[in-house]
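Thread: quick sanity check before group meeting

JM: Hey all, I'm pulling together slides for Thursday and realized we never actually wrote out the predicted structure for the chain we discussed last week. Dropping the sequence here so it's in one place. If anyone has concerns about the input, flag it before I start.
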Amino acid sequence: MTVDEKTIECIVQRVTQELSGTMKPSGETTTLKYLYDDVDEAVNAAYSAQKQFLKFKIEERKRITDSIRSVCMAHAEEMAEMELAETHYGNYPDKLMKMKGAITMTPSVEDLAADIDANDGGMAMYEHAPFGVIGALTPSTNPPETVIANAIMMIAAGNSVVFSTHPGAFQSSCRAVELVAEAIESAGGPRNLVVSLNNPTMARTTEMMNHPKVTMLCATGGPGVVKSILSCGKKGIGAGAGNPPVFVDACADIPKAARDIVTGAGYENNTPCIAEKEIIVVDSVADELLSNMVNAGAYLIKDRFIIEQLTKLCMPKADSPNKELIGRSPAYILSKIGVTIPENTRIAVFEAPADHMLVMNEQMMPIIPLMRVKDAAEGIALSCEAEHGRRHTALCHSKNMDVVTELARRIQTTIFVVNGSCFNGLGFNGGIGPNALTIAGPTGEGPTTPRTFTRKRKLVMVDNFNIR
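JM (edit): ok, ran it. Output follows.
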C-alpha cells in the first residue's frame, strides 16, 4: 500500500496550522487546553485533574480508555501518515499496523485486579493505587503510538500525565495528545488529565522531571534519557536501547526462520528496538538460510567494497548511526552509494565478522549483518556479546530446548522470542500477551501494563472476615 505524498503533506500542513495558529509566544500559556509553555502551569493543571480523577470508579476509567481507543482509531490513518511525513521513519503499512496495535492491544483496567491472601488469622488485600502525576518522555520512533499506549495505561491506573515529546516528532505527537485529551473530555473525564509541553527543550523537560508534584517518571528512548530520569530521585520507568541478536541453530526450521527474520528485521525498516538487528547462524546451515532469506524478500550484498562503503555510510563512527538514514528503506540507503535494488526489498543482508561496526552497534536500519559460527555454544556467546547486557530483546530459532534454555538464561533479555519474529514478542501475528511500546528493561518492569504505573498497597484485616 502506498500513500500519496501530496495527501500526506496536506495533512501535515493542516494540523501544523491548527497547532501553531493557536500558539502564543514562548513563556505564555497557549489557548489549547492540553499544550503548555509554562511547565509549572502544566504540572499544576495535571495535578488538579488527577485529584478529581481519584473520585472516578474503575468502570468510569474504563469508559474513558474506551473513548480514547474509539477516537484514536477513527484517526489512525491520519496519524500514521502524519508521523511518516514528519519523521520519515519506516513505511506506511507497518506504521498503520503499529498504530492500530497501540490503540487496540494496550491493556486497560482489566490489569488491575486486586490480589488477596486469606488464612485463619484474617485477610490481606493488595490493591494497585495510582502514583499521581506522571512525567512521560516519548521517542521519535513511535511518537503518536507511545502517547496513546501510555495514556491508556496511565489513565487506567488512575494517574494524570504530562508529556514531553521528542522534538523530532513534535507535530504528530501533539496530534495524538490532542485526540486523547478530546476523548477524555467527551467521556466525562477531567480536563487536563493529559497535557503536553509546548516545544519541549532539555531545560523544560528537566524542570518537569524535577517538579515536586510529578511523582513518577517514564522515559522511552536511548540510554541518556533513561539515565536522566533515574537521577531525579523518583520512581522511574525506563525503556532503553537494545541491539537484538537472532541466533539460528543447525536444527532450526530454516525456511521459517528466514521468513521470520526478513519480516521482523524489515518491520518499519528496522526502526523498532525489538527488531532483529544482527543474525548469528551455525555455519552448516548459513548458505541455506541466506538462500531462503533472498526468496523471502532480502537482498544479499556480496561485494566487499560495497559493504565497506555501506558501513561507513550507515555508521560513520561507533554507536553513532547516520540519522538521515534511520528507518529508511534498503533501496533508499543503497542508492546513496550508487547501488540500485528493487524498491520492494525488505532488508539488505551481508556477511560480516563478529566485531563489525553494524554488529556491535544498534543502527535502526534494514541493513543486517550475518555472522557464521561453528556451533550453538559459539552462537550463544556471540549473541550475549552483541546484546551488550542491555537486557532488551533476543530471538532464537532452534528445536533443541537445551540450546534455547541456555541462551535464555545467559542473555537475560526482557523479551525472548523462540521460533518466531519480533512481531510475536509484541503480540502480533499469533504472539501472546498485550502490546507494549514502552519495554522497561533497564528498570526491570518489563513490557509495561497499567500495573506498572501503580503503587502496591496492602490492606490487612486481623482476626476478621474469615467465613470458612
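AS: nice. The longest strand covers residues 122-130. The two ends are 62 Å apart (CA to CA).
JM: adding both to the slides.
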